[in-house]
Amino acid sequence: MNRFYRNTLFLIFPISLCVSFIFDPIFHPDSKDYISYHPARSVGYPFFIYILDENLKLVLFFQSFFSLFSVLLFVREIKYFFNFNNYIIVFLSSILVLITTKISLNILTGSLAFSFFLLFMTTIIKSLQKKQDTFLFLALFILFIGVIIRPQLIFLVVSLILTASYIFSKKFKKQTLLIFPLTLLIFFVPNKINLYFNNLFNEVNVPITDTWNQLMILPIFITNEEIIEKSHSKYKNLLINIHQCLVNKGLTKKIAKNNGNNWLHVLEDNSFIIKNCSNVEIEKEFPKNNLTENENVSKELFFDIFLTNLKYDRINISESYFLKFSSAFINQYYLIIFLFFFLFLINKFLRKNDDRFFFFLQLIFTHLSNLIIILIGAPYLTRFKFYTELTLMLMIFLVIIDYFSKGILKNKDGKK
């Protein structure tokens, strides 16, 4: 065994053991769904808990172990890739170890998902350094497992495609082209796996339930009675009932604005209550439906409300999605500043064609992709966006520190 890996295992094994003995697992409303494999969950994390015989102390141990292992690999590659000094590496390691250890105490997908995210980024860095296809295929495999654990990680496809394109432009190897059709499988195979196991264990004939109600949160929140009346759906009355449920709870864009509230804050704070209106009204309308049938109804409702808004209230729905997206940057003005920074990096990369500039560019593209995934059907909670947001912020901060520290050292050498 490589000396680095041997030393790493000897270091993190006792730490993980201590974490699992000292701390108790932290439960959240979703935790029980993963332990019992609810049909609204991807199969990866419930399977992880199942193979550990639902021993949550063992779950904590392995989550902590994987977290520390992925952090050490990531930090090691970052050190050599950016030529950071030891002080910067100690700082980066400390931040990531604290964060990943805290996350690993939760019975949620976040810990394993972040570990796979860091492992994926490690292989991306290795592929940029070595210009070898092996690391691209390894990144694809890591992404495949990651998506089965947490489907949100599909946003990493952008990073893989960009990196493969960049390496192909450098080496022009035919085998690099294989990564493109293989990457397309990420959009289909994990879904088929979820469908198989959901059918097998939950007797539900969809990959993951409650998906379409999740997507319907923003369109139903921003719409009004006049727009719904223009719908030609066979479920028009059901849409009216769902909207009325929101009105009764005071949870529509129109009500929020009339009350002088920031409608985005109302939407983000009550996303799951809004989704529940859809679930409750569908169950009232079709009390004999099973989960598969309800999911198909939800799918039709989503497309109907979305397309109706797009046809009759295009400005409102476009503006609403844009403002929600910009809220991930606090507001649209900070989004504009971020985009200027993005353009600056693109300009630098085009002029210098440096691997490190490319790494930042693909990381920004990946961050934007992650935010778009969240935009479609979830609130911008930290636990959804921290994968790319934390990594990007840390890397920018470290590069700035490195730049000034090297400048200070140069000035000292000059004086001597």
Strand percentage lies at: under 5%
The span between the termini is 45 Å
Q: Topology as H/E string?
A: HHHHHHHHHHHHHHHHHHHHHH
User: Quick one: overall form?
Assistant: globular
Helix fraction by DSSP (H/I, runs of at least 4): over 70%
Average pLDDT works out at 92
> Main beta sheet, described?
none
| Quantity of strands, as a count | 0
Summarize the structure.
The chain has 416 residues and is mostly helical. The chain is built from 22 helices and no strands.
Kindly describe this structure.
The protein is mostly helical and 416 residues long. The protein is built from 22 helices and no strands. The chain has helices spanning 3-22, 31-35, 44-51, 56-82, 86-103, 110-130, 133-149, 156-171, 179-184, 189-202, 211-215, 217-222, 225-229, 236-249, 253-258, 263-269, 271-285, 291-312, 314-326, 332-352, 355-377, 382-415. The two termini are 45 Å apart.
Please describe the structure with a list of short key phrases separated by commas or semicolons.
globular; mainly alpha; 416 residues
Secondary structure blueprint with pairings:
Blueprint: H1 3-22, H2 31-35, H3 44-51, H4 56-82, H5 86-103, H6 110-130, H7 133-149, H8 156-171, H9 179-184, H10 189-202, H11 211-215, H12 217-222, H13 225-229, H14 236-249, H15 253-258, H16 263-269, H17 271-285, H18 291-312, H19 314-326, H20 332-352, H21 355-377, H22 382-415
Helix pairs in contact: 1-4, 4-5, 4-6, 6-7, 6-8, 7-8, 7-10, 8-21, 14-17, 18-19, 19-20, 20-21, 21-22
